[in-house]
Amino acid sequence: MHIISQVHSRACLLIEMATVPEPKRKTCSYSFHREPLTSLIELGSFVPDDRLKNFVGQYGDILTVLKTVVDPVPLQTLLQFYDPELRCFTFQDYQLAPTLEEYSILLSIPIQHQIPFLDVPKEVDFRLIARALRMNVKEVGENWKPCGEVVGLPLKFLLRVARDEAEKGNWEVFHAQLATMIYGIVLFPSMPNFVDHAAISIFIGRNPVPTLLADTYYAIHSRHGKGGAIRCCLPLLFKWFMSLLPASGPFVDTQSTLKWTQRVMSLTSYDIRWQSYRIDVKDVIMSCGGFRNVPLIGTRGCINYNPVLSLRQLGFVMKGRPLEAEVAESVYFEKKDDPARLEQIGRAWKSIGVKDGSVLGKKFAIAMPDYTDWVKKRVETLLLPYDRMEPLQEQPPLVLADSVPAEHYKQALMENRRLREKEQDTQMELYKAKADKLHLAHQLREVQGEDASRARSKKRSYEEMESMLDAEHRECLRLQRAEVNYQKKIRDLEKQLKDKDTQLKKEMELRQKSEDHLGGEVLELRRQLKEKITPLPDCSECSLLIDQCHYLKTLIPEDHILLTLVVCFLPLRMYKDVSISLYLFCSLVAAGCHLFRCSWSWLLTLVPVLGRIADQRPHRYSTRLNQQRSMDQFQAELAEMKASMAQFMNMMQGVAQGQEELRAMVQRQEAANPPINHAPPEGGPVNDNNVAAAVPNNNYVVGDELGGIRINGQPIVPDAANARVVRAPARNPATIVDRQEDMFSLLKFPWF
Known about the structure:
By secondary structure, this protein is mainly α. The chain folds into three domains: 23-382, no CATH class; 405-532; 539-607 and 644-678 and 690-748, no CATH class. The protein is built from 27 helices and 15 strands. α9 (155-168) packs antiparallel against α10 (171-187) and α22 (562-568) runs antiparallel to α23 (578-595). The chain is elongated, with a radius of gyration of 62 Å. Mean pLDDT is 78; it is low at 1-9, 558-584, 593-620, 676-714 and 716-752. This is DUF7745 domain-containing protein. It comes from Pisum sativum (Garden pea).
């Protein structure tokens, strides 16, 4: 009777639905843009099958998320049922909301009971990033670039590096780089073809589940009622929603005949797969710190979610309506707007409130009438986005009967007793089966232990052989590289030696040409020197000049010794040989240097000018060092000879000037005093009263003759005019030829 009344009420409801249109909420259009993942999926296929398990154990089942094809129609339908106040999706008589535990199971990544990702560091730690990506610090720093409002690494660069590592067989490095790209492009998308700093930081932290759930809720909540692009991990949200829908039956059979909205509206709580894969969930995170619900921190903002509404999804009983504090909005803001609140949430995650079966009850995914009535009232307030549809499959009775007949009760007791006996028999069989299993397992372990020891020994020997072969192979490669390097060095040295030989030949030819040229110059200089040498004059003339020099030496005071140089060159042109003049010049210079207490170095610089040209032969060993020394010695001698000649020319010009003055003085004396041929007896005394009137006569010199002579513009001291006339000693007197013309023609000397 009760069933008949229930069917009647449902029929009345359907008739009412058909006649009276139900108000509906406004729908929005959302977009689900995803970057092309062809290159990343192709790179994921490089992971070998034998290493796939290792990759999943280390980074989670993110390859499945990468390869998930997202259908935007189911997601578009799902978002129309979003309840912004309760942070869930409210349907006709049930509610759905993604949880931390479900995301953890779908990704095969455990939830770390620690502070999740808060925010990107202010300063980039390239060493930490390079260590996580198994890359070089310099390489990371050079490719670190800004993109919009974020910074990070371009996907193109990471793809190229990962391909190189896969080709080399560096699978650990390849796995780390592939996981980083999946984090940046699929799990935490920000900019197209770009892995930002936040995704890399979350990858380093190895606790992505709270951040993923936060980004999902924040993206849906921020775009609710506005529409637009939903930027979060869409493959994970799609996979979660599809895991709750029926996998067979009328819902699947009508996918080609009904729209997605109609198919979803035809579902009831009886059709949802509440514990398909969630049966093993034992502990549920229900709160954090002082929050009655769970505050989540995403990459862009913070938002709370209410796990009390999702207990049925995890296999627990929904007993009644939740408390207001458990479903109240506690957190929703953008991270950059409230840093203090962000730090408060981070501190709350230090104290995580976890509840297990002792609090939540036994596993039984049903909803009590109190909760169902509360959901229906919520639907009346919130409204549904689409028209109601009749369920596609038969539904169980909404309300059970209050009493049953006695016969049915007795049958149920008998059946219950029979089932208990059968359970005991089954338990006994199970005990025996477990004992047999333990015995077989013990035997198997013994056999496996022996086999394992043999396998380990073989594996160890194989590994040793492989390591030896590896070492030999590396050594061969090293020797080959060394041989190539040495051959290259030998070729370079041979080339350098050849260049040096060519350069040496050129230097030898140049030296030979220089020697020939300088030898010709030396011969020419010698020839010119020989042409300038004239025969020696008679000895009587030489003696007369020497006597005159000695006489002048007695007349000239010490501080006017340069006058001696003037007088000694008076008869310079009388001699055809320059060596006699040089002898007289050197004698007077020696006397002057002695009087002035000066060194002989000045004289020695003048002696080699005319009398010597170095005749030393250079070392004849044909070496580059001796060749250079010979050239330097020859150049030094030539420079020394030129310097001495320049000094000698300057000195001779001064002497010529003195001769001109002396000539003018003699002419004045001759004009004033005609020559008188009276001479005192040889060796006789000289009258002091006639000193002022003394005049030169042949080989005599008087003091007045020197009175007007100036040396370098200074007159001879007056005391020289009062000097006694001294008879120049005569040696083998000979006829003196008047060479006055030659006496004052020094400036016409051929060397000048």
